[in-house]
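Dear colleagues,

As part of the handover before I leave the project, I'm documenting each prediction I ran so the next person doesn't have to rerun anything. This entry is a single chain, and its sequence is reproduced below.
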Amino acid sequence: MTRVTLRISTLAERPELADALWAMDDSWPAFMLHDPAAALYYDVCVHSYPEFVLVAEDDAEPGRPVAKGFSVPFAWGREELPDGGWDTAILRAWRARRTGEKPDTVTALEIAVRPDLLGTGLSPVMLAALRENAGRLGFTELLAPVRPNAKHLEPRTPMAEYVSRTRPDGLPADPWLRVHVRAGGEIVKVAPRSMTISGTLAEWRGWTGLPFDAPGPVEVPGALVPVHCDPDQDHAVYVEPNVWVRHRLT
């Protein structure tokens, strides 16, 4: 596949692609599908935010998405970006929609590429498309609570320490953060509780295949930090830190 064959549309432009969007394979770990804020957003985004949802097709396979990108407008003003990151942005977006408050910024929420096409350069293309779409809709910046894609390899490293690492050329050591900075993004701060996923021990066993039978931190494949397990209370909680990146569009 080459970039010149790529067609990127919003769901507002191509509503008929909604079913294919959800049917597209992705590589998210099972536990990541159980954030309550995610359920709030993804249950309504097709109808409530279609102009902020992007779907990419290869002209050689029309109607079969190769990548997708999700964003949402929210009202934040001049306050410091929230420690609650991803979850807080979604809640603020929904509150603005329900109260009539005018959104003043857009946050990217997800870029996913079909697993058989990972490593083909689609992620930077989708990031550029989200930037362009936010600008086209009249916003002056795109925010992103970024999930560094190599952080899961060292879950016990504090996120602030991980983010501070750079290559000799000054770019971030993490590949996904590097894509954002190359695109013009500015790393602003760590969002220490960007996503919170809790479940019973039985649920966590089902999501991960791990025993979850001892108290304390549990390293889970794909998780950026350990999951906190409490057998006495029959629950485990994952609090994921992300990294706020600001893309100025003007």
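The radius of gyration is 18 Å. The first helix runs from residue 18 to 23.

All the best with the project,
I.
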